Amino acid sequence: MTSNIKTVAFFxxxxxxxxxxxxxxxxxxxxxxxxxxxxxxxxxxxxSESTPNLKVIKGNAHDISAVSQSIxxxxxxxxxxxxxxxxxxxxxLSIEDPDVCKKGAATLxxxxxxxxxxxxxxxxxxxxxxxxxxxxFGRDVPVVMIPIYYLFVSVPGADKVVMEDRxxxxxxxxxxxxxxxxxxxxSNKSIRVGIEDPKTGPxxxxxxxxxxxxxxxxxxAENLVLKIDANHHIGSxxxxx
Length: 241
Known about the structure:
alpha/beta
């Protein structure tokens, strides 16, 4: 990068963790591109006249054309950072799309390859939002939470695992965040963070029950988007309690 201003592409930023991260990235003065199926959700929060650093693109994270458009900067490069917080929405006793994350990861990686094949350059750092409870290196949730993850998170969790694996095997620079059970409402609680290497396992460990979406998004922006080391391939988990 030739300046301190980054271009950050967001997928899934109309609500939750992604929205909180987008707010803080914009507040720090960076340029943001957000792909959104319903742009009005974001433009209602960020009117174009008062948020010139935000470009909202209508589209789906599984559409390679829309994704390719969303990860390109105004000067013809690939964005510096890509944040994906997409996830399946609950639908009665099931979820809307059990493959939403794995398909999103595949589409993003295909879009990067396609752009590079046309001469567009860039080596973005990808940040993927996953969930605790699915580490291959031992338990990373409290014992009492295991039945909840088994009953209600097993399907979306399996989808997140495939997403993680696709980024890990891609050769791209990446960080995976595994948040503990997400709840609403910003808090003043301290955030405890564990770090796990995808090959060698935990470097530091933290186990917690919940974290708010707002707190997780704030942490993501302040500790990754704004400070990220493009050569730091780690996974992390964060918890309020």
